[in-house]
Specification:
Keywords: DNA-binding, DNA-directed RNA polymerase, Sigma factor, Transcription, Transcription regulation. This protein is mostly helical. It is about 70% helix and about 0% strand. It is built from eight helices and no strands. The radius of gyration is 21 Å and the shape is elongated.
Length: about 190
């Protein structure tokens, strides 16, 4: 960001459209990245585009409420807006689609031998629905434990416990079906 950013923040707060255009030019890649990370497997470009537009509209509408000191605070402020708006869109998408394991395409995993993707989906379907969501968020969407805990309104330790128990259950199921682990500890 340039030193004249403070000027654009002030102009944005005053409702100047050129300031909004400048902010969009500077922050669009960052905002899109946040939205893609949060929305995850629902990555429908239409939903991502709507969410990004909604985020910039929120920034525009709430600009006068920004009370930070310069570029760093402004960036944190818009990232927070982006994150919470994207979470809202994610929740709406989950409710619309009732995100099921059938909609997920799983890349091959070096941590276990599974002949077909269907086998992995069958294994995951044996977990409780909350544990299924946690596994999808952790291993398919690359969320960390804190992000999962925040989105599912759980504590970080509860998320970690569910991951641990889920791994044990999946390992047991795989070994009972004659599978083995290529890299111990990666599931």
């Amino acid at each position: 960001m340039k030193s004249n950013e403070s000027n654009f923040i002030t102009r944005l707060q005053a409702g100047k459209e050129d300031a909004l255009e400048y902010i969009i030019d500077c922050y669009l890649p960052l905002i899109k990245g946040i939205v893609h990370k949060v929305i995850g497997p629902l990555r429908q470009e239409e939903m991502v585009g709507e969410c990004v537009n909604d985020i910039f509209l929120s920034i525009w509408q709430k600009a006068e409420k920004f009370r930070g000191n310069g570029e760093t605070d402004f960036k944190k402020w818009i990232c927070a807006i982006a994150k919470y708006r994207a979470i809202d869109y994610y929740r709406r998408g989950v409710k619309k689609q009732e995100l099921s394991l059938e909609h997920i395409r799983v890349p091959p995993s070096p941590s276990m031998e599974v002949e077909r993707e269907d086998d992995l989906m069958e294994l995951l379907s044996q977990l409780e629905p909350t544990d299924q969501k946690i596994f999808m968020m952790r291993y398919l969407m690359d969320f960390n434990s804190e992000e999962i805990a925040e989105q599912l309104a759980m504590t970080k330790s509860a998320v970690n416990n569910r991951i641990h128990r889920g791994k044990k259950k999946l390992k047991h199921e795989i070994s009972s079906k004659g599978g083995n682990y290529l890299y111990e500890g990666h599931l």
